[in-house]
Every structure is written in structure tokens, then in C-alpha cells.
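ok so i was messing around last nite and threw this chain in just to see what happens. nothing serious, just curious
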Amino acid sequence: MNRCLAERATSFRDEQRPPPTAEEGPVLVVTADGKGVPMRRPLAERVRGQRRRKGEKANKKQMAYVGAVYSIDRWVRTSADVVGELRREEAATGRPRPQHKRVWTEMTPADGPPGWGRDALFEWLVDEVDQRNPQADRPVVCLFDGERWLWEKCRECFPDAVAVLDLFHVLDKLWVAAHCFHAEGSAAATTFVTDRLRMLLEGRVGYLIGGLRQMGTKHQLGPAKNQALQSVLGYFENNRSHMRYDEYVAAGYPIGSGVAEGACRHVVKDRMEGSGMRWTLEGAQAILDLRAIYLNGDWDAFIAYRIQKEQEELHGQMAA
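result:
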């Protein structure tokens, strides 16, 4: 039933009109992230009593890429405002809410053909932006985590967009670096992270990278901690051009990908990872299509659309 219902999902999505311009915010945001979906193993691999090899899991996961487009008002802050909010010293006031958020999801198997799955998701993101910003007179912000593929598609599909690395992923990396030098849960680790977060928000990314590199040399870290620190440094170097937070905050752009994280949870995790759930590719895609339509607030319109199309196919001119 779900697969039958979802046959009309893509055509319904493509026929949706853009939101009224008067209801849109001045900044258009594009965000995307991936979430694994537990898949059923092929029947030939489901042998009772066969012991799995070391490191082999009972069921493999395939990535579902979730994309979202929304508009939002500018929110100009200072570095002190952001640090205070992240440290829970003060509650954020005046935070604008995303307007007309639309999400879509595509399953992406490893052996999928070109132009399918996550590539198809970016085709939809481009179409959505073109419809909602036809004059290209509003800034477009691409807000992703550090996944390299996402940034490659960003440069390909949105070459003129403002590229922003999610600050919360950066914050996680700072904590990893802090624990290379200070004990977990210590006040010194908290101070370490706060000081370097402030450096990032003031546009001193180069100083941060250089300082961490010098600390790693002076402290003679063990192999495990040195590897962790080098991973953090590589992450910052690879994403340095997406970390101009002083410019983003001054312009009022969003710097956290909470919308993408929330979409992954609401669209994928809450529905696809219940106890004992395992999926085929076709079944998972059908559920995700319907789930996206429901969360976009278009369920009743979609059902009416499907009934109309089914009647036209069954009864032709009489239905029209």
C-alpha cells in the first residue's frame, strides 16, 4: 500500500508552487545531511546458524540523504552573544524561525547509477532554490557539516552561495582537541574550548590551527592523542574556507545546521529505526517520500492530488 501510494509522490512534489514572496525571509538556506537506514540482507545471505565474521554486522545500512530549503530573517549577533548562548549563560532572544521549510529524502545505495539518489536530491534542491529565488536577488546560504561530497555538490550546484560549516560540528572537534591536552570534564578543557571558539567567531582560523599544531609539538602526545589531534587539524584545514564566522555573524546568516539534524531525526530516524525494522530499498524510499510530504504539511493536498490522477487514468474524460 505504501509503495502504491508513493508512486505519485515525486510528481506531486514537482507540481508544488513556491511560497508567496511576501511570506519569505530575506535569506534562503540550503542544508543537507545523511542518515543510515538499516537494510534487509539478500535472501541468499540469511542463513540460519551461520556465524558472522569479526566486525560484520547483522544488517548493513544504506544512506538516506535529507535535504531542506527554507527562508529566514537575518539575525545579527556578536561573538560574545554566540559564546554566551552556547555556554548557556544567557538565553537566545529574538531568534528568527525558519519559514516555509520543505524537506525531501533520497536513498543512496553504494552501487546506485549516476544522477540517482543523492544526486537527484541536489537536483531538487536546485529547482527549489530557482523557484523561490527566480531573480537571484537574495543571498543563498549552504549550511553543511564536513562531508566532502556535500561541499563538492555545493560548489557544483550553488557556485555563488555563501558556504557555512556547521558550528556545532566544529565545536565537537574543539572538544576532541581539548581532551588531547586536558582531562575530560575538567575546567581547563572548558576554558580551552571557549577560548578557541571565540577565536573562530572573531575570524582567526589561521591562529587557531597554528596554535593547535604548536601545542601538539610541545606536549609530546602519545600515538592515540596525536592521531586525534591530527584528525582535527585536517578537518579544520579542509574546511577553512567555510569557517568565516565573523563575516557570517555580522551578516546575520545562520551558522548551525539544526534544521538538517532535526530533519534527519524526524524524517528518517523516528520512522525507519524502530525496534526490529529492516528495509528494502524500494520500501524505504516509498516511506521516506510519504514521510517528507506529511512533514511538509502537504498530506491532505497530496491525497486529493492522487485521487484526481487515479480517476483521470481510470475514467479519462468522464473524470475530468
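not much to say yet. Residues 83 and 198 are 7 Å apart (CA to CA).
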